[in-house]
């Protein structure tokens, strides 16, 4: 209780999560509005709908890792403020787009401006809360975000029904503006490192980027989580944006069901994140990643059988189950990023993970769109649901094998984080392993 009270009295943290919650709320207004605009107003087919997450993913793939290095070296608060305000303007342009062929480039440009936000946010958390409160901060922030995911689609879907998808998108413009204003009130001595000019700055930049990858390769936990995430994320992305396609087939006269389902996912995520808030730390990542994938698989596979029952309540229940899995997965990822890498490298590591997974945000929707074209939307959901279930069970059953900590502690890597030579770091790790073996009693 004392820990919770301490973090809730942290004015900077309260402002941070308030701004983040508001931006998330607006994003969900936006997301529902864009999906309904594309499918119901512009009659986009599954392939064109699959381009929506691709517009979000391309900037992360191309610029994500460099954005992480930049965020680690600059004032994170200012980055978030300017990013919010720039996206507010682009969102306003999006609301008045006359066709999807103009909306898609705007989505791409807005995502490009926002690519710097994730590493800046991750890096800022460690500057405004103490180490012992990291799990609390991650779960509280996650709870607020999931609450936005519950409220956002419901309100956004209601505004779509009463007004229009464009009105729901405009609300996101307002959210971004206010979020930036709140962040401008933060009182933080952000220890941004000033870059040097010319060749020296370029050398430092590349060295920091190389150092981020060395941390990943020398941390089995990070590497195993990324590899597991590649398989599960690819499968999830094949159907994520296609829920609106599924519901337009099963419930053609009820477009609001997309917003309801997303809200149900948010409720499930919120409840499990609140439950996880009681944990001090996460030790067995396989149980968490595996259970998350399993529950999302149950939701996806269940969606594939909805037409046999044509019951909206069943869709909501399945979405709730998937939401629990989603909440477990997101909390685990956020905790992993905050605790496994060195503090000074959090922005870089989060960007590396984000850029790798963003590649799947392109491959997944395209594969999903093609699968729906070939098999039909219901059969595609059934097949992908089975695949996700198998991946989840693999994570649970092979937890000890995949996430075994038979490696140097992360703190050993942190000790040498200033060493920009990857080979030197590898030699250090080998030396530590030899000393450990020689010290073991026979």
UniProtKB/TrEMBL annotation:
GO terms for molecular function: transmembrane transporter activity. It comes from the Bacteria. It is found in: Cell membrane. It is a multi-pass membrane protein. GO terms for cellular component: plasma membrane. The chain crosses the membrane at residues 21-41, 47-67, 88-109, 167-186, 221-239, 259-279, 286-305, 311-337, 349-372, 384-403. Pfam families: MFS_1. InterPro entries: Bacilysin_exporter_BacE_put, MFS, MFS_trans_sf. Keywords: Cell membrane, Membrane, Transmembrane, Transmembrane helix, Transport. This is Arabinose ABC transporter permease. It comes from Pradoshia eiseniae.
């Amino acid at each position: 209780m004392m820990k919770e009270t301490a973090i809730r009295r942290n004015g900077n943290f309260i402002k941070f999560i308030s701004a983040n919650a508001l931006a998330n709320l607006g994003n969900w207004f936006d997301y529902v509005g864009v999906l309904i605009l594309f499918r119901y107003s512009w009659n986009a087919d599954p392939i064109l709908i699959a381009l929506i997450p691709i517009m979000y993913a391309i900037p992360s793939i191309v610029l994500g890792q460099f954005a992480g290095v930049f965020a680690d070296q600059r004032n994170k608060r200012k980055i978030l403020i300017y990013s919010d305000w720039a996206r507010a303007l682009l969102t306003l342009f999006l609301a008045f787009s006359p066709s999807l062929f103009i909306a898609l480039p705007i989505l791409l440009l807005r995502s490009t401006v926002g690519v710097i936000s994730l590493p800046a946010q991750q890096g800022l958390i460690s500057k405004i809360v103490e180490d012992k409160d990291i799990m609390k901060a991650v779960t509280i922030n996650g709870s607020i975000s999931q609450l936005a995911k519950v409220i956002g689609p419901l309100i956004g879907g209601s505004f779509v029904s009463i007004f229009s998808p464009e009105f729901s998108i405009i609300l996101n413009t307002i959210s971004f503006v206010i979020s930036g204003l709140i962040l401008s009130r933060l009182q933080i001595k952000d220890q941004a490192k000033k870059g040097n000019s010319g060749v020296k700055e370029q050398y430092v930049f590349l060295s920091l980027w190389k150092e981020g990858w060395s941390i990943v390769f020398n941390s089995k936990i990070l590497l195993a989580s990324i590899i597991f995430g590649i398989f599960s994320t690819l499968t999830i992305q094949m159907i994520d944006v296609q829920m609106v396609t599924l519901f337009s087939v099963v419930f053609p006269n009820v477009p609001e069901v997309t917003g309801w389902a997303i809200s149900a996912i948010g409720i499930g995520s919120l409840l499990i994140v609140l439950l996880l808030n009681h944990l001090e730390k996460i030790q067995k990542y396989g149980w968490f990643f595996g259970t998350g994938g399993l529950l999302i698989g149950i939701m996806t596979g269940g969606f594939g059988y909805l037409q046999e029952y044509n019951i909206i309540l069943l869709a909501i229940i399945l979405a709730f189950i998937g939401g629990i899995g989603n909440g477990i997965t997101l909390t685990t990822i956020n905790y992993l990023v905050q605790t496994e890498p060195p503090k000074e490298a959090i922005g870089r590591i989060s960007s590396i993970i984000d850029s790798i997974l963003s590649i799947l945000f392109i491959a997944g929707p395209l594969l999903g769109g093609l699968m729906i074209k070939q098999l039909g939307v219901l059969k595609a959901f059934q097949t992908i649901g089975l695949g996700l279930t198998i991946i989840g069970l693999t994570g649970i059953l092979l937890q000890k094998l995949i996430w075994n900590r038979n490696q140097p502690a992360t703190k050993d890597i942190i000790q040498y984080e200033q060493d920009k030579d990857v080979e030197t770091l590898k030699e250090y790790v080998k030396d530590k392993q030899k000393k450990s073996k020689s010290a073991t009693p026979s």
